[in-house]
Specification:
Helix content is about 70%, strand content about 0%. It has six helices and no strands. The longest helix is centred in the middle third of the chain and has 36 residues.
C-alpha cells in the first residue's frame, strides 16, 4: 500500500529540471593547477636524469640513490596524473560548444595535452615534458581569452 502511495506521489509531484555546468557548480576554474603539475613533472624528470647511480658495493649510497629515485618517480607519476585530471575538468566542465567557434583547435589541444600527460608518466622524456608545458600554455591562453582577460603566463621554475 505504501509503495503505491509513493509511486502516485512521484507521478503527481514532478521535480523541476535543473542544470549546472559541472558536478559541483562552484564556477571556479583556473589552468594554473595544470601548469604547476606540468612543471613538477618536468622538474622530477630532470632530477631523475641528473641523479647518478653510486658505485656497486656501496650499500648505503645505493639505498640513498634508490630512495631518491623512487621518490622522484612517485612524484612525477602523481603530478602527471593530477595534471591530466585538471585538464580534463577544464575540457569537460568549463569549455562549452560556443568556445569551439572561438577556438576550433580546442579539442585537439586538450587531446594532445592529456596524451602528453600519459607519455610523461611512462617515459623519462625532457622533450615530452617541454611539449606538455607548451600545450598547457596554449590552454592557459585559450582559457583566459574565453574570459576576455589578459593573464600573464608565468612559470614557477
Amino acid at each position: 500500500m505504501l509503495k503505491k502511495l509513493m509511486k502516485l506521489a512521484d507521478r503527481m509531484n514532478t521535480a523541476p529540471t535543473v542544470s549546472a555546468h559541472c558536478d559541483g557548480p562552484c564556477g571556479i576554474y583556473d589552468p594554473a593547477s595544470a601548469r604547476i603539475g606540468a612543471e613538477a613533472v618536468r622538474s622530477m624528470t630532470k632530477k631523475m636524469l641528473a641523479l647518478e647511480a653510486p658505485a656497486s658495493g656501496d650499500n648505503a649510497a645505493m639505498a640513498k640513490y634508490q630512495n631518491s629515485m623512487s621518490r622522484y618517480i612517485a612524484i612525477k607519476e602523481e603530478q602527471a596524473h593530477e595534471t591530466k585530471e585538471h585538464l580534463l575538468v577544464l575540457w569537460t566542465d568549463y569549455f562549452k560548444p560556443e568556445h569551439l567557434e572561438q577556438f576550433p583547435q580546442l579539442h585537439d589541444t586538450f587531446w594532445k595535452a592529456t596524451k602528453l600527460c600519459s607519455s610523461c608518466k611512462v617515459e623519462v622524456s625532457p622533450q615530452h615534458c617541454d611539449e606538455l608545458i607548451d600545450v598547457v600554455k596554449d590552454i592557459h591562453d585559450m582559457f583566459w581569452q574565453s574570459k576576455k582577460r589578459d593573464v600573464e603566463w608565468v612559470l614557477a621554475g
